[in-house]
Amino acid sequence: MAFVRRPPLRIQTTTLWEYPSQHYDAADGSRMQGDKDYSGATPSWVIWQLLKRYTREGDKVLDPMCGSGTTLDVAKDLKRHGIGFDLAPSRSDIGQCDARKIPLEDASVDFVFIDPPYSTHIEYSSDARCIGRLDASGEDGGRAYYSAMDTVIGQVHRVLKDRRYLALYVSDSWRKRKGEKGGGGGNFMPIG
Q1: Residue 23's closest CA among 64, 80, 77, 88?
Q2: What is the pLDDT of residues 130-140, one digit of tens each?
Q3: Maximum Cα interatomic distance, the chain, rounded to a whole number of Å
Q4: pTM of the model
Q5: Where are the domains positioned within the chain?
C-alpha cells in the first residue's frame, strides 16, 4: 500500500502548530502512526512536536489513555521507549488498565502524553469504568468526570520523574441542549 508523502517534519517555533494532515509518514515510509479510522485519534504531528522538544532518545514515554497507539508509533520513530495503556486496548502492544491506577513504579517515566476523553462526545468503551462515559456537564455538575481526571493526573504525577514533562491534549467543550432551537441553549464544559 502506497502512502502519500507529506511535508518534511520540522520543529515549529511558535506556540500555534500547523499540521497539514492527521498523520505523517513513518521515517521509512512504511506506515502511518496510529489508526486514521480511530474516532478521536490524536494527530501524530502534535505528538512528534512534543517528543522532539521535551524528550531524548531512549527516554520512557507514557500514554495512559493510548487509544489507537499513535504515541507509541511516534515514540518508536524517534527512538523513545513508548509505554501505552488503555481501558480498551486497540492492539497488542497496548496494556489494559484504568488510567486511575497506572501499573508503573513511582518516578519511572520521562514524559507523559495524555489525550483524555472530552466527556461523553465519543463512545470509547462500554466498560462502566470508562471516563468517557462520565458527563462533564451532567446532573452532578460534572463532579464525577473532574474527580476521575484529578485521579488520573495524580497517577501521572506519581509515575513522572522530577522535573520532567506532562503534555495534556484537551479542549473545552460545548453541547447544545436537546430541544433548543437556534444557537442560544447549551452547556459549556471547561475541560481544557
Answers
A1: 77
A2: 777 777 777 88
A3: 54
A4: 0.80
A5: 58-189
58-189 CATH fold: Rossmann fold (3.40.50)
Residue 22: count of CB within 10 angstroms of its CB: 17
Distance, CA of 132 to CA of 145 (rounded, Å): 8
Cell of 141: 455538575
Q: How far apart are CA 7 and CA 4, in angstroms?
A: 10
Distance of CA 133 to the CA centre of its chain: 16
CA distance 67 to 38: 8
